[in-house]
Design brief:
- By secondary structure, the protein is mainly alpha-helical.
- The radius of gyration is 16 Å and the shape is globular.
- It has a two-stranded antiparallel ribbon with strand order 1-2.
- Helix 2 (47-59) packs across helix 5 and helix 4 packs across helix 5 (104-115).
- The chain contains 5 helices and 2 strands; from the N terminus they run H-H-H-H-E-E-H.
- It has a single domain (2-115), classed as Cytochrome c-like domain (Cytochrome Bc1 Complex, Chain D, domain 2).
Length: 119
Amino acid sequence: MGRLVLALTLAVVLAATAVACGGGGTDDATDASPITTPSETASATGAGADEGARVYADNCSGCHGADGTGGGESIAGEDDAAGIRSVVESGAEGMPGFSESLSAAEIEAVTEYVAGGLQ
C-alpha cells in the first residue's frame, strides 16, 4: 500500500512539473501566463537589464532556473540574440511562445538579458 501511495504521489508531481514547464503537449502561446504589469520600454540606461531580469524571473525561471541551467532546458551560455528572440516569440520543443503575452520591449529586454549571460 505504501508503494502505491508513493508511486501515485510521484506521478502527480511529475505531471505537474511537466505542465508547468510547457510539457503539456502544445506549443500554443495561449498556454503562457501573461504579465500583469507590462513594461513601457527597455532603455539603454540600465533599466533594460532590470526589465530583462524581471521578465526572465516572471516567465522563464520556472523551467530554466534562475541561472539558466534548470530542468526545462539549459539556456546558460546562449548568446545568439536573434535565435533567443525567435524562441521567446514563437516557442520551440515544448516551450510556448510569448509573442501574445509579452510586449516587444519585454521580449527585447529578456533577449538581451539571456544573451548577456543572465546577469
